[in-house]
Amino acid sequence: MRNSSIPLDMTFTSQARTLGIFAAWTTFVVCEVYAVASGLAYVSQGAAVEGGPFLSMMAILVVVMGPFLVLSMVAVHTYASPNNKPYSLAALAFMIACVTVTSCINFLLLLVNSQPELFSESWRALFLPCKWPAPAFVLDNFVWDWFFGISMLLASPIFGGNLLKTALRFVMLLSGALCLVGLVWLAVSPTQAIIISILGWGAAGPIVFLLLANMFGRVQVETGEIPAP
């Protein structure tokens, strides 16, 4: 008996396109502001950000960025072809997990850093100084390495065909691979592992959303463009 063909997916509407462009661009901009803030903190403190106003600013930026990460992946899910919907749905789920946990961690970090008198010394020790091996720092690195990394790997098969989409797939694979390598490398050298992880979600990650915003911007939904299978 011959199987019936899968109908074309028309869920990528102009509204989804607009949402994807806005969310991806916002994610990229917030990532770059975060990078500038961390750079200024390094220049002023001469070391990794372990406390102070710059740490509070960076925590706020992570919380602000969270919803736009999720909205970007919602747009990716609507863009994906029917055959790739399982990948895009799984990528969205892992991104929601990443954003949920990191938002909670960074909101608590903001409160502990800005109003330490409200918390006991044992509670503050979970967050400050914000470096290895503080439990909150370790957990935050884990969720970015694991959930964000897997989200990137799962989303990568959705894209391909022209040069822009191929570049997007490559950078997604690179970002996800670096995140997972950084996580595994913790057993060898935490310092080196954190650097590898930052290259994954902090360097390649923003490029993913820059390319994603440009890709969505070039989709002509009014002409009935169908995502590549």
Notes on the protein architecture:
The chain is an all-alpha fold. The chain has one domain. Helices cover 72% and strands 0% of the residues. It is built from 7 helices and no strands. The protein has helices at residues 14-45, 53-79, 85-114, 121-124, 135-155, 163-185, 190-218. Helix 5 packs antiparallel against helix 6. The longest helix has 32 residues, at 14-45. It is globular.
Brief synopsis:
With 229 residues, the chain is mostly helical.
Could you give a short account of the major beta sheet?
Answer: none
Helical percentage: over 70%
Could you tell me how far the N terminus lies from the C terminus, measured between alpha carbons in angstroms? Answer: 24 Å
The number of E-state strands comes to: 0
Structurally, how many domains make up the residues? 1
* Low-pLDDT segments, ≥5 res: 1-9, 222-229
Strand content: under 5%
Order of helices and strands: HHHHHHH
The class by helix and strand makeup works out as mainly alpha
**Which descriptor suits the 3D outline?**
globular
Average pLDDT confidence is 88
What is the number of helical segments per DSSP (H or I, 4+ residues)?
7
